[in-house]
Design brief:
The protein has helices at 10-17, 19-42, 51-72, 84-91, 105-111, 137-148, 150-155, 157-177, 182-187, 189-197, 210-214, 220-223, 251-255, 279-300, 304-311, 316-342, 350-357, 361-380, 382-389, 411-440, 445-462, and strands spanning 4-5, 203-207, 261-265. By secondary structure, the protein is an all-alpha fold. It has a three-stranded antiparallel sheet with strand order 1-3-2, with no helix packed on it.
């Protein structure tokens, strides 16, 4: 594995350790986020002409799937505005760390300041997240909940506004009672998705030298220091082996007194060389796969009745849809993989194989989402120009593009690209399965059969 440290260059390092560029981006995004909520309440109820729907579910979503996650991993989390208000409250500060003299009683209490030592998490008034929930089961649940109502969320500006406002309030409330970014780490519905697929990214944040960490006094990257804060995600950078839980907030780069944090360029999917070991993460990979298939069927498929029932929330038809959606994600797909794992006559137990081989669903799932998003973007991209000119649907024409009609793009190219993505994903997963099977001393065939079956279904749904 070849690594290139991008923050070795003094100029890049200066840019990354300076808080202003990140702060400006976050502040702009927070303003856009609040405007998205506002546009849901005061703008047109026609989703395709409302800023909230067009910029969140068409522009942001496409950028996230097609660019941000595959290339920058958790890069979005480093500028995401949702945890900001809570974090500002916890810190009693918007930017950087204030000197002791200039700090209010509230922020001193919040940070547990009372000694000249860096605040340790035990000193703060914030509780640690309950041990029983220190996993991603709640995130899996919140993503499924969002998925269940997605057809209506994706099309109704009011519902989108309510969901976004709820996320903001929940993130804020969590930061009042619990330490650091507990919301991001354990609750955010998008977090599990980004965390899972960030393992594919060619960007990683790791320590340079383990020995430096062993001898480092106070471990400021975790506990904070007078120059900055301890890891908001509750991660000790010296223990990082995967991208999953590092929010790329860059705080440790700023705080480390030994310049021991490196942001590396590496080969794609390096993290996948270490198989998943936890059942919650394994389930996440099935949920993401099943959700991509469901969205493809509902939003791109020709089945009017399916579309109708998925929109008509709480009706008997929707209940059937909900049971089918949850059943596919929580029982059918994992059950199929588990049954196939049992076919392996030797090697690890079916449960251990199930967890390990769910790793191969990460590239497959990402390619499913890519194929789905390509089509979704191509058919809706023309709304971006319309919405830029008339974000609230009030008849404005700010930049002269309000009159553009709906026109899908990439007619000839989209479907071949989608097929290429799906076949590429299958090849990628197969290659990973073969590697993994060698290490586990089992046959890769059951896992490959699973990938083949699901890819054929997705191909059918998309084409
Ligand atoms: S985990 Fe969710 S709320 Fe937190 S930074 Fe990432 S996307 Fe934003
Ligand atoms: S502050 Fe730097 S040297 Fe110290 S433990 Fe953290 S990464 Fe290692
Ligand atoms: S490890 Fe560093 S960059 Fe990653 S979340 Fe923690 S402080 Fe931020």
């Amino acid at each position: 594995m070849t690594l290139t440290s991008i923050n070795n260059h003094p100029l890049v390092n200066k840019l990354l350790t300076n808080r202003w560029p990140q702060f400006i981006l976050q502040a702009l995004l927070l303003a856009a986020f609040l405007f998205t909520i506002l546009s849901g309440w005061i703008g047109t109820p026609v989703g395709s002409h409302n800023f909230g729907i067009v910029f969140l579910w068409i522009t942001w979503w496409a950028l996230l799937i097609l660019v941000a996650v595959p290339f920058f991993g958790r890069g979005w989390c480093s500028i995401c505005p949702i945890p900001l208000p809570g974090e500002w409250l916890q810190r009693g500060n918007l930017l950087g760390k204030k000197s002791e003299a200039g700090r209010s009683q509230v922020s001193k209490a919040i940070d547990g300041i009372g000694s000249s030592e860096a605040p340790s998490p035990q000193e703060t008034i914030h509780r640690r997240w309950p041990r029983v929930f220190r996993n991603i089961w709640l995130q899996n649940g919140s993503f499924l909940l969002l998925g269940l109502f997605s057809p209506i969320i994706l099309t109704s500006p009011q519902v989108t506004a309510v969901v976004l406002a709820l996320m903001l309030v929940l993130a804020f409330a969590t930061s009042i009672f619990f330490e650091r970014r507990s919301f991001c780490r354990y609750l955010c519905p998008v977090s599990g998705f980004i965390g899972l697929y960030s393992q594919v990214s060619p960007l990683e944040l790791r320590i340079r030298n383990k020995q430096d960490c062993v001898t480092c006094l106070g471990k400021p990257c975790y506990n904070g220091s007078t120059t900055g804060y301890g890891c908001p995600w509750g991660v000790f950078p010296a223990g990082l082996q995967k991208n999953t839980n590092c929010g790329l907030c860059l705080e440790c780069v700023r705080v480390c007194p030994k310049n021991n944090i490196s942001i590396n360029l590496r080969s794609f999917a390096t993290d996948l060389e270490r198989p998943l070991t936890r059942m919650d993460e394994a389930y996440k990979s099935f949920i993401m796969l099943g959700s991509a298939m469901t969205y493809a069927a509902v939003l791109l498929g020709p089945w009017g009745a399916l579309k109708l029932h998925s929109y008509a929330v709480f009706t008997p038809g929707w209940m059937v849809y909900a049971v089918a959606f949850l059943g596919l994600n929580l029982a059918i797909l994992p059950g199929l993989m588990f049954s196939l794992m049992k076919l392996n006559p030797k090697g690890a137990s079916p449960r251990a194989s199930f967890t390990a081989f769910s790793t191969i669903l990460i590239p497959l799932g990402l390619m499913f989402w890519l194929a789905f998003s390509l089509s979704f973007l191509a058919s809706n991209v023309s709304y971006i120009g319309i919405s830029l000119s008339d974000p609230l649907g009030w008849g404005w024409n700010l930049i002269g593009t309000a009159g553009l009609g709906w026109r899908p793009i990439g007619g000839f190219f989209i479907q071949p690209l989608q097929v290429l993505s799906l076949v590429g994903g299958l090849g990628w997963s197969t290659q990973l399965a073969i590697k993994m099977a060698k290490v586990q001393n089992v046959s890769p065939l059951p896992a490959i059969i699973f990938c083949l079956l699901t890819t054929l279904i997705m191909l059918w749904l998309i084409t």
